[in-house]
Amino acid sequence: MSTELHRRRRRAPRSKGAAPHWLGRLPYLIVLAGVGGGLALCALDYFRKGSGLMAAAVLFGALARLVLPPSQIGMLETRKRWLDVTMMAVFAFAIAGVAYVVPH
Description:
Layout: H1 2-10, H2 26-43, H3 47-67, H4 81-101
């Protein structure tokens, strides 16, 4: 009986319209999958396509960090919002620039 009561107390009631807890991990998983896919393409000798995919994934992370509230951004939130967005955008354009400059 006491364990059942303890379990009921531990769960916080969700308000109506609240997003599920896994939704906060989704932007981070999309960025992670994009970077992983880009690295796999680079390993398969498709450097430009892989770098483009990595740049797009990081730019998606910057846009997600800019638009989504802190409750839904998950692990992409590490510093202040403007610093996160700026750094991810700079990294995305740097990756795309390297992909463009490197010869075939």
